[in-house]
Amino acid sequence: MSTNTAQSSSVEAVQRVGGDVVFLDLRLNSGIKPRPGQFVMAYTKGSEEIPLSIMDYEKGILRLGVKSVGHSSKLFVQLKCGDYVSIRGPYGTHFQTHNATNLLLTSYGLGLIPLYFLAKERKKKGLETHGLCLLKENDIVLSKLLEPHVSSVRVIRGDTEEMSYYEEIRNILVDKGFDLVVSCGYKTFVYRVWRACEDAEVPAQLSLERMMKCGMGLCGSCLIDGERGSIRLCTDGPVLSSETLRDLSDFGSFEYNDTGRKVKI
Asked: Is the pLDDT of residue 25 over 80?
């Protein structure tokens, strides 16, 4: 089955984390091979089609993490076992970390979702991974997900200590000898992580967030402009390397809104 063909998937299990986050296990009828960092386009009854990061995949069960932030995501959070979700994908680029012997995962909030998938896959291969998470109080429980799959994980409170997080990243990049940093979170967060990596001359792979409507590179809503041209984040990303980001002058500064207008971040 083509990744552009939607398939109906039944909800097999629901795990609620706090009041506004849910993990959904979906049974797929056809085989797909998602990789950490990729996403699917999903909709359920009454919702619009929205992009969702892949949290895990094993033996035909696709796990998605969803936070209620709008009308459509609220409907996903309200799903129960036996309900159905329509899935297209997987789409996009993925993290490539097989050559990294000492990896640092950095995340803000639900940016931890695709990094959980990556940490789990790396542990299977015996690769060393460490986590540094910026989480608000209601989301701190998410850090427990990483603990079985990483050598260490540290949590910094996002609601009171956000600025100290970036200082911590700068310090450990100098002292700990990481050979690669991967990151996922909101727009200004990943930009600051990238700047810290550039200053420390440590390569990075970042999962970026932009508005996505089609997932196939057709609508242009996820464009990021640069001096040498634009990229479509749904097909050229969402995971981008340091080298690619250096050529994108709009990274960390501008994005396109839902009307197609370029606005400051």
From this structure: yes
